[in-house]
Design goal:
about 350 residues, alpha/beta, 7-stranded mixed β-sheet, 4-stranded mixed β-sheet, elongated, ABC transporter substrate-binding protein, signal, ABC_transpt-TYRBP-like, Peripla_BP_I
Length: about 350
Amino acid sequence: MKNMTLKKLVAFGCAAALTFSMVGCGSKADTSADTGASSTAAETDADTDAASGDTAEYNVAIVKQLDHASLDEIANAVAAELDQIAKDNNVTIHYEIYSGQNDQTTLKQIGDQAIADGVDAIIPIATLAAQVMTVCAQDTQTPVIFAAISDPEAAELTGIDYVTGTSDALDTNKIMEMMFAQNPDIQKVGLLYSLSEANSTKPIADAKAYLEEKGINYTEQPANTNDEVIAAASSLVADKVDAIFTPTDNVIMAAELAIYEDLAKAGIPHYTGADSFVRNGAFATCGVNYTDLGAQTADLAYTAMTEGMDGLEDYYVTEGGIITVNTETAATLGIDYSVFNDMGTVVEVQTTEE
């Protein structure tokens, strides 16, 4: 059993009262903090049984740190798997999807309301959301099953009785190897990331170590807002870097659609930490399948609600190794990406604005 330890994140102000309900029927959709999107799984048969007391019911809050392709994909996968679990086990699972809009106060309000409503589990997606939900659930010990935390130990999400989840730990060296396999003559690499993203700390350190060992120059461009990301990308273009690396950084991901065309037209391949970047125009990645990660997270949540937290690990690393390439971006860059065929399973995608 995990020891119950938790360091205080920050001093939070008083949370404003919110008016969303954690139980209700309706279509699944993403929502901002003030309107919950709700769904009841296994509605056809289970609702009738539940009325007679024959079917167990569970309430779950799914909390995205913010809205962007990766987190949306995970949230939708969690919801779909909860639906399937409900159907397979003849139970009713009510859930709502919330977005914290990348704001700590908003996340705290969502978490406090979820606890007040007596949810059976909270599934936070991304590091800040997981940290805030862990604080909100401290007194009640409500199970917190996080999703897509690259470094749970650095985020101080380990060793806590009521917390577990899935990790999308990045194999930075593999992405670096892809970069140099595609272009052995790289002289300078740009590192584009956010200082506010805990997910980026270790991968950026790993990238620097890799490049230093090879004697390759690199230039860093941290950015913390959408406008800063655009400006940072422009600086890297002006600096004539040969390639750019970004880890699973939510801030950069949210701005990918605003920068990918300029990078591709400048002949600079953008290697990233998740396939959602690639679907939004980046060149390539090697990482996890976020639909699989979301399903695994939902399975963990159901185990926590039905069997308790005893026996569960601090976290579970989702298997990666899937190489995703944007064929449209590759064409703009004039890159033959067949070299990746010997490095893993290659999945081809095109740019979507989702």
